[in-house]
Structures are given as C-alpha cells and as structure tokens.
Amino acid sequence: PPAVAAAAAASAPAHVLLICFPGQGHVNPMLRLAKRVAAKGLLVTFSSVASVGARLVAAAGVSAGGDGVPVGRGRVRFEFLEDGDPGPDLDDLMRHLETAGPPAFAALLRRQAEEGRPVACVVVNPFLPWASDVAAGEGIPTAVLWVQSCAVFSLYYHHVHGLVEFPPEDDPAARFRLPGLPEMSAADVPSFLLPSNPFKLLADAIITQFRTIGRASWVLVNSFAELEADVVAALPGVTPRPPELIPVGPLIELQQGEEDDAVRGDLIKAADNCVEWLDAQPPRSVVYASVGSVVVLSPGEVAEMAHGLASTGRPFLWVVRLDTQPHLPAGFLDSVSGRGAVVPWSPQDRVLAHPSTACFLTHCGWNSTLETVAAGVPVVAFPQWGDQCTDARFLVEELGMGVRLRAAPAGLRREAVRDAVEAAVAGPRAGEMLASARRWSAAARAAVAPGGSSDAHVQAFVDEVAR
Ligand code: UDX
Fold first, then answer.
1. Which atom of ligand 1 approaches the CA of 371 most closely?
2. Distance (Å, rounded) from C-alpha 24 to C-alpha 292?
3. Which of 106, 51, 105, 43 is CA-nearest to residue 77?
4. Contact 319/292 with Cβ under 8 angstroms?
5. Ligand 1 atom 25: residue of nearest CA
6. Which of the four, 217, 279, 290, 420, has the lowest number of CB atoms within 10 Å?
7. How is 130-150 classified by DSSP, letter by letter?
8. Neighbour count for residue 276 (Cβ, 10 Å)
9. pTM
10. pLDDT digits (tens, 9 = 90+) for 252-311
C-alpha cells in the first residue's frame, strides 16, 4: 500500500549520485569520496560514461546496477551512462560528452526516482560543466568535488575573473603574487591557463565550470585544511568572493581491509606481484617511478629514464605503459633483472605505503602528490603539464619533500635522473626531506582519522544531505 511504501522511503538512507569525468585521476578521488560518504551511512551511486564502466568491470571487478556492496554503514553501487565510443582524442571526447552527456545523465537521474531511490544530491567533478545544469533541471542540489589543489583552484579563479595577469612564459625571472600563495612564475601556473596550451577544449570546459561553480551547494576539495591553510584562509577576501572550499581529503585508500578493498577504481588491472617483489627488498631501498595515467614519455625520455634508473645501483619499480614498453633499450630488462621491475600498472597506494619504498619519481598529478604526502615518501618531481607544474612547486619548495628533475633544453638526460634520485635518497638534504615527508604524512592521516578536519567535513556534508 502507498502508506507502507512512503514509510519505507522515509526510512531509506539518503541517496548521493556522483558523476565522474572519464580519467583515472578523476575516478580515484570520486570513488574514494563515495566510500567516505557511504561509510557514514548513505547510499552512494558512482556513475561515469560506459567506457569507464567497461574498464572498471574488467580491471576492478565492479558490477553495475543492483544494490551494490556494503561500505561501512552504507553501500556503494555503480551505474553507467549509455554512450558511444568517441575514440582516444581528447577534443573528440569533450565534444561527444557535451552532446551525448546531458540527455543520458537526465535519464539516469529520472530512473533512480522511478526505481525508488530518488537522488538527494549530485556530486559532479570538473570538466563536466553540463552535469550541474542537468541536476538543477531535475530539481536536485549539487556538490562539486574539485579534484586538484586549493592553490590550483585559486589560480583558476583569479584567471577566470580577470584578477591576475600571469607573466610571459619566456621570462622565467618574472614573478606574480596571489593572496595566501608564495611568489610564483609562469612555470608554476597550471599550463592550461597559458598561451602555449594545446588542449583548448579541456581548458574551455574548466573555465566554463568556474563561471558557474558558485551555484553549487557545496564545493568539496581533495585537500586537507592543514596542508593549504594560507590559501584557504585568503579566498574569502577575494572579490568577487569564491565559494567556500570544504577540504575532505586526502582522498587516499584508507587500507581498512577487505571491505574497503571491495571497491577500487583501477581502470587498468595492476600487476599482482608488486607487493611480493617489494617484500623481498631491503627497507627504504626502492625507487618507485610512475608518470600516472595520461602523461606519455617520448621514446628518447624512456631510454634516458631507463639508463638513469639503472645507473643509481638501487632497486627500482617502474610503471611503463604497455604501448611505451617497446621504447625500452634493447636488453634492458635482462640487464636489470632482479634489481629492477617494470610493470604496466601498479597498486600505487600499496607501493607507496610499503616500508621498502624510499622515494617516488612522479609526474606530480594531484592524486600522486597527495598519496606520497600521506605515505610520507620523498619525491623526485618531474611535472609535465596542467596542474602538475603547480603541484611540483609545492611538493619541493613549500613542503620540502624532495627535489626537481629537470630536462635539459635538448631533452631528459640519464645523469639528471641519477643525480636527482641520489639527492632525494642519500644526498646531504635527504634526511631533512624525509623528516618533512613524515611530518606531512602524520598531518594527512590525522585529517582523515575519525574526528579529524576532513572527516568532520565529510560528516557535516552527510548530515546536511540526509536532513
Ligand atoms: C590527471 C592529472 O595529471 C592530475 O594532475 C589531475 O589532478 C587529475 O588528472 P593523472 O595524470 O593520471 O591524473 O595523475 P594522478 O592525479 O596522480 O592520478 C593517477 C592515479 O592513478 C593515482 O591515484 C595513482 O595512485 C593511480 N596509479 C597510477 C596507480 O594506481 N597505478 C599506477 O601504476 C599509476
């Protein structure tokens, strides 16, 4: 009878639906937020495009539809949009999402209500500027999850509102200042905002999103209050005033055992021998190297990196995409056998948490940055583009957690790789960098522990949604 159905709906947990841009660097923080929210008692549906769904099913073993899996006091389930495959080109993908995304997403939201789980809040992430309009059209409030740093948020915000002029890219000595941030040069600015940026449609999507971000009911951010206190404190003084940033990170795997492990966001299946291999290495001996899911090193860079890592004489675990492995020098794998391991994808959270890992040669994607901060592992920072440039500046100069690896004008050189690794692991400042990394690790863990600053922000969000 209708009265019974209404009573059941009233006692059902509130339903939060997340819609995620198709990229590993977005899926991981969105899914980790899904788990934090579910753990506090809500029903959470993670959605993205069909191609992400197919990869999550194949690599992470998730299944779409149904009641999902228990996480803490709630559940996480998956549903994917119907969409065609636009191919690997980023501009094609952006155009495709612009037209196919809105109707498919509206249909998904309506189906939730028809099936008895009306959506109380939609969480969108950047690069899908249409998703919040669709939710508003259905009368559903939205939260944004900003998946990069508060510093990067501030740089975008000032740029979009015409509040800053970045120095010319060809003048490395020129500096500018923004409230709550250190003096910066053009090299520290997310490269999407600079005239040389080749990814125009992606930059447009970010900028469009910034114009409307103030309409969101919450702007959650994958950072923690203690890490970016100055920039967060300065934002309310900026005119026009930005939305309040609510730090809920670091959104890392909390490694709370099987229940947490039941929902993972790997789009590529991780090699399953990495942890065993690390177990066999001495404590704090291994150089872990990875440039994330989207950076592609040139054949020359792969060769120099290979010789550089081999010449450190240290054990190393190196993530090299399958399509890049043919660029490894002939006989390389045999020549480093036993001491060096090359895998197409690693369980990075477990690698960084492993006691054998000594340093992380990273492209400084924001997830990798927060993961190494949380694990307390010093870095060799090798940023390529986008927010990686800003993140590297913070890791090395502001957090004091490592050194830069810079390519010479003629390209990356093996000696530079060797010297940067040595400086981070055994150089005169290595002890200082490890101590800083450990201090930041303790602060990160405290922020997400029960009652910590980010945990309290997640709880407040859950309480408001469930009200
Ligand atoms: C991209 C941008 O570079 C990043 O700055 C932005 O904030 C999000 O989109 P990506 O380049 O893939 O992301 O880097 P990163 O943000 O570091 O995310 C990669 C994720 O993949 C991390 O969570 C990392 O743990 C995971 N990973 C990477 C693995 O699990 N295994 C690997 O072998 C490599």
1. 25
2. 9
3. 43
4. no
5. 348
6. 279
7. THHHHHHHTT--EEEEE-S-H
8. 8
9. 0.96
10. 988 666 556 778 899 999 998 999 999 999 999 999 999 999 999 999 999 999 999 999
